[in-house]
Amino acid sequence: MRKTIPVEDNREEDMKKFMAKPEEVLLDTLPSQMQAIKVMATLDILSSHSPDEEYMGEYAEPAWLAEPMIKAAFEKFGGRMKEIEGTVDERNNNPELRNRCGAGIVPYELLRPFSKPGVTGRGIPNSISI
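Structure for Lipoxygenase domain-containing protein, as requested:
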């Protein structure tokens, strides 16, 4: 919204206009179609994952694989990430968690470690998108 809607303790002139034509005042607070398009396009570009994005736990550095202790730690980390994904899936399928189930409610996938590409991107990137 570009403007605030008048409130009772605001200027009397604004409140009179609001009481006379509330729809017109509401429409004045909204951005133009072009402003909304620019904001949506910018947010989409800044929050999209790169096609060559690397995700947490997906690939080990070659130097890590040469060190048995580091390789074991990376494999343990990967196993823990799979456990976390199982927990997320379990919670998404639990009907007692009402915020996760129901008509029209999308399952939580934002930080699901190995999710497929979609609205929320996929997985947990090694770095931020912006």
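Residues 53-130 form one domain.
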